[in-house]
Amino acid sequence: MFGTFQQSHIRIEIEATAAAIRDSLTRPSCLQEWLWPQRLQADLPERLHPGLHFTSWLGPVAIEHDVEVVTDLALRMLLNKGIDGFHEWHWGDGWVQSRLEGISLLPLNLGQTLSLMKLREYITQGDGDLAA
């Protein structure tokens, strides 16, 4: 893999329940709405689950995801191709934390920061069914 080793840990406050945050992170239909410009493959199940393998694209860069853990308060995925590493999410009522580590040419910290800002906007202003 080309690139440099990068790591980023970010925690933000979100005015939402843990269930709303979980749904935003584990339902591909929700992910696709706030994760733009990253695109997910079309044939994903209603929810992410351990053992699921899927691909997303950031422009022409493919990123393979292997879902390892999905609980009511956490998500962990191994990443390959565009990012060789892992992405962990932990959350509770009013907060979400993201940890991303890997080797990549992509600017991981910048992408992670923008994604968390978009997630917060999606949950608090987007779908009224998800807000606290």
SSE topology sketch:
Elements: E1 4-13, H1 18-26, H2 28-34, E2 39-40, E3 53-58, E4 61-70, E5 74-81, E6 84-92, E7 95-104, H3 108-126
Antiparallel strand pairs: 1-7, 2-3, 3-4, 4-5, 5-6, 6-7
| CATH architecture classification name | 2-Layer Sandwich
Radius of gyration of CA atoms, rounded to a whole number = 14 Å
| Low confidence ranges | none
Tell me the total number of β-strands.
7
Which CATH class applies here?
Answer: Alpha Beta
In which range does the helix fraction lie? 25-40%
Strand content range: 35-45%
Any idea what the shape is?
A: globular
Describe the strand arrangement of the main beta sheet, using strand numbers. 1-7-6-5-4-3-2
Report the CATH topology name.
Alpha-D-Glucose-1,6-Bisphosphate, Chain A, domain 4
Which structural traits does this protein have?
27% helix; 7 strands; 3 helices; 132 residues; globular; single chain; seven-stranded antiparallel beta sheet; alpha+beta; Alpha-D-Glucose-1,6-Bisphosphate, Chain A, domain 4
What does this structure look like?
By secondary structure, the protein is an alpha+beta fold. It has one domain (4-126): 2-Layer Sandwich (Alpha-D-Glucose-1,6-Bisphosphate, Chain A, domain 4). The protein contains 3 helices and 7 strands, in the order E-H-H-E-E-E-E-E-E-H. A 7-stranded antiparallel sheet has the order 1-7-6-5-4-3-2, with helices on one face. A hairpin with a 3-residue loop joins strand 4 (61-70) and strand 5. Helix 1 (18-26) packs across helix 2. It is globular.
